[in-house]
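Record type: ASSEMBLY
Status: queued
Input:
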Amino acid sequence: MRAMSDRPAEIVKFDNVGLRYGTDPEVLSNLSFTLYPGSFYFLTGASGAGKTSLLKLLYLAQRPSRGGIRMFGQDLITMPRDRLPDLRRQLGVVFQNFRLVPHLTAFDNVALPLRLAGADEKRVIKAVSDMLDWVGLSHRSHAVPATMSGGEQQRVAIARAVIARPRILIADEPTGNVDPEMALKLLRLFEALNHRVGTTVVVATHDVHLLKKVPDSLIMRLNKGQLSDPTGALRYPPRPSATSGSGT
Amino acid sequence: MNAPPLPEAPDGDVAGGYAGPAHGKSTARLLPATRFSGPIPWVIAILMALVVIAAAGGLALRNLATSAGSQLSSAVTVQVIEPNPDLRLARGEQAVRVLTGLDSVQAVRLVPEAELVALLEPWLGAGAASGDVPIPALIDVELKQRAGAAEIAQIEAALAETVPGARVDAQSDWLRPVYGALAALQWLAVGLIGLVALATAAAVWLAARNAFAGARDTVEIIHLLGATDRQIAAVFLRTVLHEAAFGALVGAAMGAGAVWLLGQQFAALDSGMTSGGGLALADWLVIAAVPLAGVLLALLTARITIALALRDML
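Status: finished
Output:
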């Protein structure tokens, strides 16, 4: 076991976080966990367990009702909202329903994170063209989302999430609308980001088979808004989960 | 399987590693080409036309008051009231001699009786020339300085011995109520401009809110992708700029046209008083600034509206 001084800096830390919408009961309760750089996490749980709510906290679409969250060493609870865009540009998000910008083409949707960050247009064109080619959509680069199939939209959404080499990739059921071959290919893309760039990956899924495809992944399980730790993912040093073969 | 083609790592030093939030052409199409609800540019045009007309009216009234004031501020009228025509004429001439000898007097003119009759004929008809109605002798006096109370008192004292019963009035006193009315009309023009500016701001506020509501989903997406409030606002402001500029220019052209036509009508009156109410080059420059101010007001209103709407988002 590594000494405490060797422990890598946490990238995300939840401390007794609770979330409720309006006056409804809490959908997430007492969440305390830490995500470390370069790790690959699967977030599992039944429908309604709170996966999407937890991801919303992670991709800064929601502030918690109670508790504390730190990201990249910064306190999100007290952070003024005008500093949030800086953090958001370090995240890549694959939304559950893709959330592509309807009036933009596939190319422009994928280019969005780079353009928002002020990337040079030559770099944007090269990177986006390569990425669309890789996800098999170069022939659809001028198509708008309304004319694309669900699988095509999903691939565009994933390409948009990874194009700017985010520090954390957050994906909500990212392979739900693609065939198994494309699902595996996209998972390899996430792994490549994880290994080559050091991106921390958090994938919410209920696909049991997917969990076994990433050998070093860690599993977090949500049940009725509470987090359980079946594989030691939430301890340090975390225990890889792949060999556990844990299901949802 | 090929490795994914991730872009090269950026080499900037800001979050995300790139040069920082962009605001130029690359972000111009972040939102759909939202247009203000159809009539808004035309509403702005009508409001701007009203502002131009009100501004031109206010400036013309100011010029009129200034012109009349400068012409009459040193003018004094001396009336010699005497029923006997011969005595009236003699006293009038005596008064002219006395006034001519005063240091403070620039010029003196005894208004000929024929001129007086012509002035009064529209009101008195043929009776003005009949001699049945006694008409006082009138003397126009131009002082070297403004005709204040001290100057009037000095003239009255000089005339008291030789021309008893002479009445001395500063001409500006007669027009004081007119100046008051002109000043009130100028304030009315200012008030109208203020109200129309408020109406313009309200129209832009409503239009910007509608445009924001229509694009809310897209705004949320690009917000979550890291767009700053400034980037999002810039996209809306681009639309506001185009439509407000269109409305302001059309409105200014309509207003200027109306002002020019009114100016022609007043010029045709060939009246001494209205001739002082013409617009100078500086006035036209002020009027030309109206559409610019209108566009700036629209941009400011839209910026505040969008900023407030964005504050509701995390």
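Annotation: The beta strands of chain B are 75-80, 105-110, 137-143, 166-170.
Annotation: The first helix of chain B runs from residue 40 to 72.
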